[in-house]
């Protein structure tokens, strides 16, 4: 059983930055960040493999967001820079047993989400 707890969300002005954290209990492998804006489907943001050797990003966040992990602390991070109003959403971290997973259905465990609001 894996439990995931996100933190670090909040209100920020456009152009600002936030760092999200996802603390995990239990064994985790590929980790991903997803987001869901009001009235929209949950979408992939970024993923990182077990030892951080491979990362993947949605086109909409490439060059602005960075995913990383600290396997000693069993924590995954999402550094978000140059935030835009369209980044406003609830952000979720998730764990998948599949290498490099990027689809919602490939993820088994989910956190409760942390809200990010970017004002213009």
Overview of the molecule:
The structure is a single chain. The protein is an all-beta fold and 120 residues long. It contains no helices and eleven strands. It has strands at 3-7, 10-13, 18-25, 30-36, 43-48, 55-57, 65-70, 75-80, 89-96, 109-110, 114-119. The strands form two sheets. Strands 2, 4, 5, 6, 9, 10 and 11 form a seven-stranded mixed beta sheet that branches. A four-stranded antiparallel beta sheet has the order 1-3-8-7, with no helix packed on it. The N and C termini lie far apart (40 Å).
Layout of strands and helices, then pairs:
Elements: E1 3-7, E2 10-13, E3 18-25, E4 30-36, E5 43-48, E6 55-57, E7 65-70, E8 75-80, E9 89-96, E10 109-110, E11 114-119
Parallel strand pairs: 2-11
Antiparallel strand pairs: 1-3, 3-8, 4-5, 4-9, 5-6, 7-8, 9-10, 9-11
Characteristic key phrases:
single chain; 120 residues; seven-stranded mixed beta sheet; globular
Query: What structural class do the secondary elements suggest?
Result: mainly beta
Shape: globular
The number of helical runs is 0
Largest sheet: 7 strands, mixed
Task: Summarize the entry for a quick read.
0% of the residues lie in helices and 51% in strands. With 120 residues, the protein is mostly beta strands.
């Amino acid at each position: 059983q894996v439990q995931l707890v996100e933190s670090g969300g909040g209100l920020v002005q456009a152009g600002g930055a936030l760092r999200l954290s996802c603390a995990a209990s239990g064994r985790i492998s590929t980790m991903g960040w997803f987001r869901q804006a009001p009235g929209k489907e949950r979408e992939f943001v970024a993923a990182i493999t077990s030892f951080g050797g491979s990362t993947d990003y949605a086109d909409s966040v490439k060059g602005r967001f960075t995913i990383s992990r600290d396997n000693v602390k069993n924590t995954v991070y999402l550094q978000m820079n140059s935030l835009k109003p369209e980044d406003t959403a609830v952000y979720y971290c998730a764990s998948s047993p599949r290498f490099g997973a990027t689809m919602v259905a490939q993820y088994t465990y989910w956190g409760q989400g942390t809200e990010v609001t970017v004002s213009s």
